Every structure is written in structure tokens, then in C-alpha cells.
Amino acid sequence: MAKKMVVGVVGLVLLGVAALGTNFFSYSKTAIRQARQTVEDSVPMDIKVANAEELVRGLDPEIKKYMRLIAEQEVDVDILGGKVAKRENGMKDAKKQILALKDALDKGEKEYVFDGQSYTSEEVRKDLDTKFNKFKLASDSLSREKDLLKVRQEALEANRGRLNEMMEAKKNIVAQLEYLKTRVETNKAEKAVGALDIDDSKMAQARKLIEDLNKKLDVDVKVRAAEGRLAGEIKVPEKKETRNVSKDIEDFFGDEAKPKTDL
Question: What DSSP character marks residue 110?
């Protein structure tokens, strides 16, 4: 079955080359690119945004890994820096010993006394030569360690700079993603509003009905007014008597309710 499929594909390619010549492969690339674009356009925007969020979350492990690398480099630099500082202090003490022995040997004495112990000038010279050779070797070693410390410090600073750039880049990406999500939501809302099917004819009917009702009420008012004038009668409104509440209370309670007069 697989063999037949391969033969079929090869046959289609040969037919395409025979029909279109060397342009067949160019046309094929264009068709594949257009097909990919069609598939890409068919993917909903929500899925694309979710994919972008997943990619942003995928940056966190890389950033944490870089942080750990920098932390390890910081520890290495601290350890090496401590060793260099300790060796420098030791070199200072060794230098003092060498200079003190040299000053003593330069005096040309046959015998020297150090800390209650006697030494010949030859013994002092041999000890000074040994100390000096050790000092030179230690000085070379210290110089290499200083160079190594400098290289590690520079690498550490460079990595710190890269980490800061990564952190800043992630902040910008997150901000852009939030802006994109806002635009997507706004676009969805606008599409939802645009999709509303408002029946203008029904709105026009309602407006016309309201206008007709208002007109009918206005006509009714005018008709009643005209009918009143045609009747030719003037109606005098009855005078309403105002109730004297104070008198009613005095009549009910008697002398207790009458106003008090000053004697």
C-alpha cells in the first residue's frame, strides 16, 4: 500500500513537471504557503491568544534556570575572591620576611641570630634563596588566579545584564499581550453589537403610533373645549366654606379650649 502511494506521488510530480516545467516547484511552494495561510487565518483569535500566553509562561523556567546559573557564578566568584585575598595577605607577610633577611645578609656578617637561634651567612643566603623562589612561584600563581577572577567577574556581570534584559523583555511581552487581549475583547464586543438585527420598520411603526395617539389626545381636548363654548352657559363654581377648626374645638371641649385672657 505504502509503495503504491509513493509511486502515485512520484507520478503526480512527474506529470506536474511535464505540464509546467521548472515552474512546477515554484507553483507548489506558493500553493503550500497559501494553504498554510488559509489554515492560519481559520484559527480563532482566542486560541492564538491562549497560545501566546502559553509561550510567555514557557519563559519562566528559562529565566529561573538563568537565575540559578548566575547564583552559582556568584558563589564561585566569592570563593575565588576569598582565596585571592587570603593569598595576597600571605604574600605580604612573605615579602616582609624576604626583605628582612636581605637587609640582614647585606650587612655581610658571618653569623646571624634570629629568635635566639644562630645561623651562618650561607644558611641565611640559602633560606633567602628558597623563600624568594617560592615567592616568585606564588606570585605567578596569584597573578593567574587574579586573571581568572577578573574573567569570572566579567562573565558574571555580562550574565546579569542578559538576565535583566530577559526580565525587561518579558515585562514588555506581558504588557503587549494584555493590550492584545483587550483589543480582542473590544473587537468581539464590536462584532456582537454589529450583529444585532434591529428591525427599523417596527421602530417606525411604534413612533407613528405614539404620534397618532398624541394627536388624538390633542384633538379630544380641543373638541371638549369647543363643546363647552357652544353650550353658552357660564358655570360659576360653588363657593366652598372654610371650616373653622378652632371654633369646632372650643365647642367640643368647652371652656377648657377657649383662649385665656390676661387679668
Answer: S
- SS3 at position 3: helix
Give yes or no for residue 257 having a pLDDT over 90: no
All three cell numbers of 51, joined, read 497560545
* Residue 114: strand, helix, or coil: strand
Which residues, 6 or more positions from 5, have their beta carbon under 8 angstroms from its beta carbon? none
Q: How far apart are CA 143 and CA 126, in angstroms?
A: 26
Q: What is the pLDDT of residues 26-62, one digit of tens each?
A: 545 555 555 455 545 556 777 777 787 888 788 888 8
pLDDT digits (tens, 9 = 90+) for 112-151: 888 889 989 899 899 989 999 999 999 999 999 999 999 9
pTM (global) more than 0.85: no
Distance of alpha carbon 26 from alpha carbon 39, whole angstroms: 20
Q: What is the CA radius of gyration of the chain?
A: 54
User: Coil, strand, or helix at residue 117?
Assistant: strand
Residue 114: the pLDDT is 87
pLDDT tens profile 234-246: 565 666 666 666 6
Q: Are 121 and 109 in contact (CB under 8 A)?
A: yes
Q: Which of 14, 23, 59 is nearest to 174 (CA)?
A: 59
C-alpha cell at 170: 518579558
CA angle 223/228/230 to nearest 5° reads: 95
Angle at 72 between CA 67 and CA 75, to 5 degrees: 125
Alpha helices (H) in 21-120, listed in sequence order:
23-42, 45-57, 59-106
- Count of alpha carbons within 13 angstroms of residue 259, beta-carbon side: 4
